[in-house]
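Notebook B, p. 112. Complex prediction, attempt 2.
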Amino acid sequence: MSATTIEPALLARGEAAFQAQRRQRRRATLTGLAILALCLWAAGWISEFYPSSLAAGLPRVGEYFYKLLPSLRWDALFSGADTEGSIAFWFYRLDDWAWLLLQTSQMAALATLAGAAVALLLAFPAARNIAPTRTINVLMRRGLEAMRTVPEIVYALIFVWAFGVGPLAGILAIFLHTAGALGKLFSEVVENADLRPWEGLRASGANWAQACRYAILPQVAPNLISYGLLRFEINVRGASVIGFVGAGGIGQELNLVIASNYYEEISAIVVLIILTVFAIDYVSEKLRHRVIGAAEGH
Amino acid sequence: MLQLEGLTRRFGANTAVDGVSLSVPAGQMVGVIGRSGAGKSTLLRMVNRLTEPSSGRVIHDGTEVTALRGQELRDWRTDCAMIFQQFNLVQRLDVLTNVLVGRLNHRRGFGATLGTLFKRFSAAERAMALSALARFDLAEQALQRADTLSGGQQQRVAIARALMQQPKLILADEPIASLDPRNAQVVMEALRDVNRRDGITVLCNLHHLETARHYCDRIVAMQKGRVMFDGTPAALTAARIRDIYGVSEDEFDTAPEMTAPALTPAREAALPA
């Protein structure tokens, strides 16, 4: 059929249908935007987000940062820790803080590793597509939900009360939350896996665990590793804050200096945390690409 | 001897397989033909219990397959290996491991099963897998990832995996529908060879009459879930084809094929009867 045989009436009808569809889509978009704006306004009103308070408070944020600034002097910048105005004076407790930072990152590492291991085991029964029974599936999903909806800081408060002040409470708190959060992500990755190999394995008489291991795990492993390393970065930040309730690491020290208004020490510690997180982000990013590259290889 | 008694499967209002009764003696090569949506795939999947029948029974050597559960069901599945249209290999694993997974259910006890989760296979099993691969000219590719292989090669890996199960029968669900003619021939020769030399019963879904006639001892023709013909290739004349399907043999073969891999019951149910 050539283009010349198409009737003008058909073209007109097609054009009319196209215009009608476009009008309808525009109406839908505008309605959506109006609803969104209304929701935003309501959210701001309920959460007491008043522009006037924002305007009044903003200068004080600047004031706080000004107070945090160390009093450095150019002539003494690289002098020893005894000279006021030097960098060494600003970071006069660098050895203690470095140790606490190391402790913080180790808390995060341990909690992430343990959390990822538990998440890996729970993710398969929590995935809708391959769960052995519906009951187990629902139980696993609700369990993972319960683990991750409680904030780390609440877990930390409970564990500090139970195990006393120190890193153990922090590790347990981060571990529980990580297992719940990663378990959910992992199970979603499993739900996106290709089920043809799964059928192949099941049809050959492999049991459920074997089919998970051979049909699903090779497909999802690179994704799981990527999520795990991402979680490690998040957990380093989390571990820095969790010390506020006495759960060990640099957070405990930070809480102390904030409460005591030791402004220069606050900025010193914050700078150290930022540098550490940068470093870990950088290394973990590199590691992630290499590990995924290697996992793709076989 | 494999016996199907009034095997039926309904997906909602749609009856995919409708009261099929067949009896297949050991060592036979049976071609199940029919057009898209005739119920061939569902029939085969019910024999392996990948799809549960709505009613009817499958009996093999006196054992009621449709009543098996747990370990007994897995043992049955090991006895009746399955070949798929889309090969269903684990793309990210090497060919050798893909073949070795056929041994997974041969381990007994908790410790041995746990060992399989860490890829612990014996040297004897690796030798067995390599000779199965060598039989289909694939020994050189043993350590390559499955997704680096052509479709024809992947299907032969799937047959090697099936042989590792040491099955009594092989169910091949459209094994050549995704392959070009040359590879299709190689794969059909392989199935024929397994049937002849190893004495394994083969049930093979096909949608080309000529292929079924050439390779099978017996042809079962299905239409709308029912068996319309069951006999030797010679008895399936052009007149019978026209009777059953209302088209000539040429039209039957060249009919546009909906290549649905039939992954889930939902997808199967979506197909027209």
